[in-house]
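[step 3/7] inverse_fold.run input=structure_tokens len=702
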């Protein structure tokens, strides 16, 4: 391929990066600025120009998905034999190749489960942590190994780092040492050891080092702000005394410091290589100017070393809608409000797969799972199990069901007390525990206990105080109405798991002090990482960005919360009044029978109170339902995605005879009007939709 043709379509800064073919190169690439495009074109340009052969290039990134995307782009650019791998995949391959020559004897076995090894090590030193405690211990050992901390140094290192260990420092050190002994005795290695051993056989074996460096002469490292000390050790072994290294990263997107990642190597690149070429990518092709302005404001307030090199993005897309800032009275109201806004977006043609709700902790997802289910909106949970599928919640539900019959009829206070008593032995304590995994379990159980408190605070529909039976019935109903697994829909994800992804519409929720930034971000450095996490969330949005917070946890609770400090200078000066303006904006909807104001979403769709009398053609409603079923089968969609039951009933009641009348029915947006309007009007008129006979689309066995 002509080297100049490879550069076609690149912007000036991307072209500058792609032309920097030799020597150390540092590309600071802001969110949405086309960094993968820049580095793959740089590689292809070097290959096409004869600077280096494909087989001599090693491109490294952090996820298999990113590596796969890089390989795909390189194939399309005429460089299919370039090695694009994760650090671990590259090291594992090299370790297997050089083991016989460098070490000899049988290769060590890559352990299948670190948890099992940690459990055995814990028991050997007289400790019996539970499953989540073991996960926290495994994570702590991983942190120690990637930061090159040995068992004997752990106690000092954890204090210096300001970490909250899952046990005392001495206990973790004992388990860590026993774990390392077990691995040596049983000839096992974990993923951290793969990197350590690969670096060691290159550094300690001149012949191996020469063979490796003859093979690979040209290195590219993506997401360099997330490199940890162990990965840096391996990278230095790969390089030796050479400097044909290109690194790409954004210090404003450093969000994994708790795992040992550090932006120091990116920020100090120019100090190590004073002659390095520095390129800044700042043209944002992902987001509208409105979203970019929010992102720039958020990161402009950053403090610390990383803030000095933050990039000011320049939007390249046309104008879009203004971001939404919404305050709610309580968490359930926030979840319901967000779900309703998503319903409007879907009705206006935004695909469900292009909408995301981003939460700070996994425990927040339950409210949004329920609210989306109530609205008939399909969803999936990314990067974690859905609320009622989590092991601790399954265990809790089993206990609650077992207590149902004996506790039937208990009063409100005993319900709350009994629920907390039942959940206490499996992890629900009065105060949040230390340890990331243990705390996530506690947050899930706490959310379940909060549901009991919410139910106890208001009477049941028949005027009683909620009992244990009512509580279990509510849980069963919520479990039954969760969206079926595997169906593509709105994404619910944590801010951390959203890194590297993007959607047309993003809802950042729960933006209060104590959640964003999280309550256990105590040092200035930890708060700044929370700011960067918020920045990552903002920059996931292409067109629509909504940010919300609630003033109380439960309906009727004390409004003591404060909006996140990261919203300062962004949200309206009087968010509560702006929220009221937002609610009025849609207009007052009154019942067409009794003229009362309608607030419930179903009643607003019907145009009347559910208790008010209404007459409609039952045969028409049945025809509409039958048409919806056949259409859903043909389009392989859930029926409620076509039209909800409430919308079909409203159509049957109002019997619209024109497009304008049909468009006035709540739930019939412009997109649905274009797709289904003609068919619906034909059904109302007593006929059949064009091209669809009465029996079309029915299963043969029905």
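[step 3/7] decode complete -> sequence:
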């Amino acid at each position: 391929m002509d080297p100049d043709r490879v550069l076609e379509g690149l912007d000036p800064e991307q072209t500058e990066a792609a032309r920097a073919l030799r020597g150390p190169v540092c590309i600071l690439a802001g969110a949405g600025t086309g960094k993968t495009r820049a580095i793959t074109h740089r590689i292809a340009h070097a290959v096409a120009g004869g600077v280096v052969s494909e087989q001599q290039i090693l491109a490294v990134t952090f996820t298999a998905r990113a590596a796969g995307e890089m390989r795909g782009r390189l194939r399309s650019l005429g460089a299919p034999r370039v090695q694009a791998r994760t650090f671990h995949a590259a090291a594992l391959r090299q370790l297997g190749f050089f083991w016989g020559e460098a070490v000899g004897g049988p290769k060590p076995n890559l352990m299948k489960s670190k948890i099992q090894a940690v459990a055995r090590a814990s028991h050997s030193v007289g400790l019996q942590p539970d499953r989540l405690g073991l996960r926290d211990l495994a994570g702590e050992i991983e942190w120690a190994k990637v930061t090159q901390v040995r068992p004997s140094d752990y106690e000092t290192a954890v204090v210096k780092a300001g970490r909250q260990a899952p046990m005392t420092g001495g206990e973790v050190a004992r388990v860590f040492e026993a774990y390392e002994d077990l691995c040596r005795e049983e000839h096992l290695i974990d993923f951290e050891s793969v990197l350590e051993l690969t670096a060691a056989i290159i550094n300690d074996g001149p012949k191996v080092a020469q063979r490796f460096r003859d093979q690979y002469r040209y290195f590219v490292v993506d997401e360099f702000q997330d490199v940890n000390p162990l990965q840096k050790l391996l990278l230095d072994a790969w390089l030796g005394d050479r400097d044909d290294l290109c690194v790409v990263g954004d210090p404003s997107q450093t969000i994994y410091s708790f795992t040992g990642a550090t932006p120091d190597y990116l920020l100090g690149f120019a100090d190590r290589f004073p002659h390095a070429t520095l390129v800044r990518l700042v043209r944002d092709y992902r987001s509208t100017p409105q979203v970019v302005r929010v992102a720039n404001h958020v990161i402009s307030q950053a403090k610390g070393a990383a803030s000095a090199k933050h990039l000011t993005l320049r939007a390249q897309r046309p104008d879009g809608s203004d971001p939404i800032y919404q305050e709610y009275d309580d968490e359930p109201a926030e979840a319901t409000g967000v779900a309703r806004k998503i319903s409007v977006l879907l009705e206006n043609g935004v695909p469900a797969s292009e909408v995301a709700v981003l939460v700070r902790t996994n425990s927040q997802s339950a409210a949004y799972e329920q609210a989306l289910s109530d609205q008939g909106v399909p969803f999936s949970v990314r990067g974690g199990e859905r609320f009622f599928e989590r092991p601790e919640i399954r265990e809790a539900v089993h206990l609650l069901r077992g207590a149902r019959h004996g506790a039937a009829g208990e009063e409100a206070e005993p319900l709350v007390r009994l629920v907390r008593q039942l959940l206490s032995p499996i992890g629900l304590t009065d105060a949040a525990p230390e340890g990331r995994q243990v705390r996530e379990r506690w947050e899930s159980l706490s959310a379940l206990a909060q549901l009991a408190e919410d139910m106890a605070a208001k009477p049941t529909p028949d005027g009683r105080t909620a009992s244990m039976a009512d509580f279990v019935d509510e849980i069963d109903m919520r479990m039954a109405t969760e969206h079926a697994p595997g169906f593509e829909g709105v994404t619910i994800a944590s801010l951390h798991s959203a890194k590297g992804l993007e959607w047309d519409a993003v809802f950042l929720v729960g933006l209060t002090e104590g959640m964003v930034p999280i309550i256990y971000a105590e040092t200035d450095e930890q708060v700044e990482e929370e700011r960067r996490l918020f920045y990552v969330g903002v920059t996931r949005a292409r067109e629509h960005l909504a940010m919300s917070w609630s003033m109380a946890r439960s309906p009727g609770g004390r409004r003591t919360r404060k909006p996140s400090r990261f919203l300062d200078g962004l949200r309206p000066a009087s968010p509560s009044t702006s929220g009221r303006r937002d609610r009025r904006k849609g207009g007052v909807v009154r019942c067409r029978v009794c003229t009362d104001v309608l607030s419930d979403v179903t009643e607003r769709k019907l145009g009347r109170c559910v208790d008010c009398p209404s007459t409609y053609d039952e045969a028409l409603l049945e025809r509409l339902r039958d048409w919806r079923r056949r259409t859903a089968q043909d389009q392989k969609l859930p029926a409620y995605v076509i039209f909800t039951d409430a919308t079909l009933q409203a159509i049957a009641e109002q019997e619209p005879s024109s497009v304008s009348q049909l468009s006035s029915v709540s739930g019939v947006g412009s997109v649905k009007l274009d797709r289904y309007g003609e068919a619906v009007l034909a059904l109302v008129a007593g006929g059949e939709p064009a091209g669809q006979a009465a029996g079309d689309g029915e299963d043969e066995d029905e």
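[step 4/7] annotate
The chain is about 50% helix and 10% strand.
The CA atoms of residues 228 and 439 lie 25 Å apart.
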